[in-house]
Amino acid sequence: MYAPPLYRSEELAQQHALIEAHSFGMLTATVDGRPHGTHIPFVLDKGPEHGPHGRLRAHLAAANPVVAVLAEGAEVMAAFLGPHAYICPDDYATETHFPTWNYAAVHVYGRPRLMDEEEELRQLDDLIAAEEARRLPKKPWTLDRVPRELVEQFRTRIVAFELPIDRMDGIFKFGQNKKEEDVAAQIASFRDRPSDSSARVADQLYAHNAERLG
Question: Which InterPro entries match (predicted)?
Answer without folding.
Answer: Split_barrel_FMN-bd, TR_PAI2-type
